[in-house]
Amino acid sequence: MKIKNISPDLKIARESNPSAIEEIANNLSIPRNALELYGAFKAKLSWDYLKELFSQPKRGKLILVTATTPTPAGEGKTTTAIGLTDGLNRLGQKAILCLREPSMGPVFGVKGAATGSGLAQLIPREDINLHFTGDFAAVAAAHNLLAALIDNHLYHGNFLGIDPRRISWGRVLDINDRALRSILVGLESKKSFQRFSFFDIVAASELMAILCLSQSYNDLRQRLANISVGKRWDNKKITAEDLEAAGAMSALLVHAFKPNLVQTLEHNPAFVHGGPFGNIAHGCSSVVSLNTALRLGDWVVTEAGFGSDLGGEKFVNIVCRQSGLKPDCAVIVTTLRALKFHGGMDLECLSQKDVDSLEKGFPNLLRHIQIVEETLGIPAVVALNRFLTDSEEEINWLEKMLSSLKHPFAICDHWAQGGSGAVELAKRVMERSQQAQHDFNFTYRDNDSIIEKIEKIAFNIYKAGSISLHSHAQEEINNIEQEGLGQLPLCMAKTQYSFSVDPQLKGAPQGHDLFVRDVRVAAGAKYILVLCGEIYTMPGLPKIPASGSIDIDSDGNILGTI
What is the pTM of this model? Predict the structure, then answer.
């Protein structure tokens, strides 16, 4: 048997000396009896404690970490969020990190772990990236329970009159598996209804979004009840409450609803809770974890999935709209490698010096600055996540360009130096958040039509020149508005690799067409999912999955890239 070597990041995490989670909690003045321990280094907070805490006013400033358009090379947004938290604490501030939980799909697929790298990591790394405290399993169980109850109802006579052809609720799995995108169910008995269905990945489940957007158990229960699973023969919608499923689903999510407390390598607190995807869901940690951290710390650093056109936009238009939260400052993470890639440089050559490609890719960064500061109205700082191969000439060029625009900029070395390498960024963030505030903006109004909302995002965020809709998408828009749900915000699902729906269209394209393939209402999550281009809610594995580099040794230690 071939035993693989332990990855350097995992080795760093293993050789660190984590504090007991009680110590991390004590530093936040969280009493011991408020902790529900999951081993020595993980804990959930009790609901009794949270109820008391939520009666207190918020005291912290909220910092949103977003990024330029992602590339296959990886930009280190999570690593930067961790480094910034450590940097703020090194300045004597009480800073808390709030991140989403990793999905095992990307861990075993192409993206890899989601707990940072180098000296800017979360621990216990393996636990967080794999089963953690069971939140993903609870969401999957609750989701699949509802799916089973639908088919069971059909089997036993279908007295509610559900139209089997119009059931919109599939099943979920936390592993990338394209073979399950379309399945045939109901083959087990002559009494069963044979019909086509599907699997999504758990992070794309409406239940995951509900978990992350709910602010109390009552809110959670009501949202679950409102889930629409399809239509009756008379064209009326059928809900989870109609199937008497919402109560049992709520019971499965009782513990998952409570935020998880862990720590960084530098023993600073981190709430890692909820895990909606950034390109096919809203991509942010739970509102409960944010509300908890904002009452315990001076600064709360959170991350929104992928670039500002996806995670940043949805954080504002969905999370802030539903929760009343408002970022005090944003960090736009970029790398020289990313800008050179958007300037046309080949992926294999990104370590080479090339100021010409950097200059050609610079408009991508400018577009994200415009989105964050002008369109969304959040003051921002650009963070250059420095790589070992970056040349001083390239760094100086970027710094000169941003200085000429009078835009705050910081070079970050947190990967190599930990929190000390992000102190400059922490200072810029503190300064920027104290300056005159921008006019915080939602991209559209609640009473705009669905088409108007799509247009405002397409034209103002993506800089598209036109919109085209599949006939099915138009039909669903009409149905949603007839049901009186058109006031809900949009959750745009598209490729993360471009402002357009074409992942190969790099840089800062303008005038492209936004193709809307499908529109679905997520009544429980209280948003409308808009599927654009060839985006899937069940990803596939790459030709060489990351799972091939993961193994264990004779003592049960995990080896590889987790």
Answer: 0.95
